[in-house]
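Re: [ENG-882] Designed sequences occasionally contain unexpected residues at chain ends

Forwarding the minimal case from QA. Structure tokens:
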């Protein structure tokens, strides 16, 4: 099927000039906004599932229809793969062949990350596939790395070696974010670096699409980008690992690296 989706168009040509300031502000002062009751209810569903059968977790945040959740669950049969999306409508269009080791929950991801952190629970892998790009410069704060919830994502990335309620408590957490907007992925990479978790930004070309948005963008001929990091070891921001220019750990665009294609 031929797709004709438009690429994100933005009045922002490079990394947002307020990116570093915004990220640092959120990392310093965590949001104390109360967690919404429906997100607590979704989290309790997860706890009940794990009480029945404890398994290490893979999180598929912003999962949309959950096609990626289903793919990941098939790929990792020993894990519980949890897809989170706020849209009941999107979740309602999930594939019918969901395997027993997947769970789709309607919740806001930011609250869900916070509940996981508060409960001392870690995840082994965290996927963030094609989040809404919010390409207008004035919408930086709506992007994952520009919002207050980023601090919870970072804490989840730090793992929870002490006191985790899960078996195989993660010594390291693999994070992957994909987008068809290169700037978004680079910004996320810089934000993760500022938080002490440098990774790699690379163009990817999956053979078979992991999610519906990936399929749509790929079939429209868009370039697809991924940030990946294994965040087991926290680097000290500002330490020796920070190269001059502040983008150490980021592979230049078009490096041809394609380490994520095997999942698609
Ligand atoms: C562009 S879609 C991508 C869906 C899916 N990952 C894919 O690749 O097909 C972005 C999704 O993020 C969800 N979303 C946006 N903000 C959210 C939030 N704060 N918490 C949970 N889901 C959210 C939307 O409902 C939507 O399904």
């Amino acid at each position: 099927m031929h797709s004709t989706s438009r690429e994100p168009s933005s009045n922002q040509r490079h990394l947002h000039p307020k990116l570093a300031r915004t990220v640092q502000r959120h990392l310093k002062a965590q949001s104390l906004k109360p967690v919404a009751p429906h997100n607590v209810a979704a989290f309790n569903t997860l706890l009940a599932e794990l009480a029945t059968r404890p398994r290490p977790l893979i999180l598929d945040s912003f999962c949309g229809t959950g096609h990626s959740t289903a793919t990941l669950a098939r790929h990792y049969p020993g894990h519980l793969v949890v897809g989170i999306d706020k849209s009941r409508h999107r979740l309602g269009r999930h594939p019918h062949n969901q395997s027993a080791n997947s769970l789709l929950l309607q919740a806001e991801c930011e609250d869900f990350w916070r509940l996981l952190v508060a409960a001392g629970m870690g995840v082994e892998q965290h996927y963030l596939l094609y989040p809404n790009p919010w390409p207008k410069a004035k919408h930086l704060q709506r992007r994952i790395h520009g919002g207050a919830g980023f601090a919870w994502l970072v804490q989840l990335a730090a793992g929870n070696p002490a006191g985790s309620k899960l078996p195989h408590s993660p010594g390291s957490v693999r994070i992957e974010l994909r987008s068809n907007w290169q700037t978004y992925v680079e910004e996320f990479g810089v934000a993760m670096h500022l938080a002490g978790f440098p990774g790699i930004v690379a163009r990817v070309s999956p053979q078979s699409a992991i999610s519906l948005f990936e399929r749509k963008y790929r079939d429209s001929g868009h370039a697809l980008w991924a940030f990946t990091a294994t965040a087991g070891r926290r680097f000290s921001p500002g330490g020796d690992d920070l190269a001059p220019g502040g983008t150490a750990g980021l592979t230049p665009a078009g490096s041809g690296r394609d380490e994520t294609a095997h999942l698609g």
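QA comment: On inspection the terminal residues look reasonable. The helical segments are 19-28, 37-52, 67-75, 88-91, 109-118, 150-157, 182-194, 212-219. Proposing we downgrade this to a documentation issue.
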